[in-house]
Amino acid sequence: MWDIIIWCDEDAIDFVPSVWASSDYKQYKYPIGLNQNKIREIIYELDTTEEVCNVHKDPQSNANSVPSVTFYSNREGGTVHTDDVHSISSRSTPTGSSGVFPNHDQHTELLQTILKTQIEIKFEINELRKKVDKIENKEINQNKVDFRLQTTTFVDKLPINNLSEIDEIEDLIKNEEIFNELVNFLYLVGGENYVRMVNSIMKKLLRHKVAVKFSGVGKKQKLPFCNLKIYKAVHMAIRRRHNSTTDQEIQKTVSLYLAQSKARLSSSKTRRFLDNQEKV
DNA sequence: ACAATACCCGGTTGACACGA
DNA sequence: TCGTGTCAACCGGGTATTGT
């Protein structure tokens, strides 16, 4: 449990273990006379025991002092001003000890500010990820990547056109080095999230007419794609780029792609048919 | 032990959205 | 505008549960 606190006399903000609060939650202990790294280390790693708090009561570092704070406890759903965060490296020796409770409106305003900032950060991360993906894909297209990848075994072999080519690839990737090459190849396909990456990879791997012969686990008289070593390569490539994706999410998305491949196939067939009709 | 039922998972389909 | 991707609703088969 953490408390987010604002140091009134410095316009600075910090978070500390909740147990560092005084009994009335109006004051907090804080390590004084230590460098920033040490302070961070203490806050991050040694957070919740009374024993730890006692560590700060080092007479030489004046750690018994209790700084003056306005505090926002996460017990109360409190939050902080994001536009006014100062480095605590410039913290002066605290004086006095009067705490001020924020009112409800302040709480709400602070919470909204933090949520807004969080959304902005998420957006920025997504944008950056997209840019990285674009750069990587561009490099592949322009053959600027590692020469070994230019001549990769799979450039000419994918997408797979029939079941015998599946067997061929399965045989090839029994060799660990070639398997890793496939993983690298699929990894560089990229995708801003795991779903898009799965779809891009599957599209690169299988023609629709082959994809319709497979389902995730092989139900309804279809072949089980997840039993293939190719699937393991897909799985590893996705995990490498989106490491928080679960096995279940990957398998489900691959299964869904395969399940929908019939629709893709028939729609492309229909469209080709309609095109031919128009030409006649 | 067996049959009936409920539930879950995966496949199919059609509509809509999106990007080139 | 067209081709393709995505999503949601629906359907069906398999499996677990429950009652007899």
Q: In brief, what are we looking at here?
A:
The protein has twelve helices and five strands.
Notable features of this structure?
280 residues, mainly alpha, 2 domains, 12 helices, disordered C terminus, DNA-binding
SSE layout:
Blueprint: E1 2-7, E2 12-17, H1 36-45, H2 50-55, E3 70-73, H3 104-141, H4 147-150, H5 153-157, H6 163-172, H7 176-187, H8 194-205, H9 208-211, E4 214-215, E5 223-224, H10 229-241, H11 247-259, H12 261-279
Parallel strand pairs: 4-5
Antiparallel strand pairs: 1-2, 1-3
The structure holds a DNA duplex (20 and 20 nucleotides).
Region (Disordered): 82-102
Organism: Aquatica leii
Protein name: DUF4806 domain-containing protein
Detailed description of the structure:
It contains twelve helices and five strands. A hairpin with a 4-residue loop joins strand 1 and strand 2. Helix content is about 50%, strand content about 5%. Helix 7 packs across helix 10 (about 230-240). By secondary structure, the protein is mostly helical. The strands form two sheets. A three-stranded antiparallel beta sheet has the order 2-1-3, with no helix packed on it. The protein has a two-stranded parallel sheet with strand order 4-5. The chain has two domains: about 1-110, no CATH class; about 145-280, no CATH class. The protein binds a DNA duplex (20 and 20 nucleotides) through helix 8, helix 11 and helix 12.
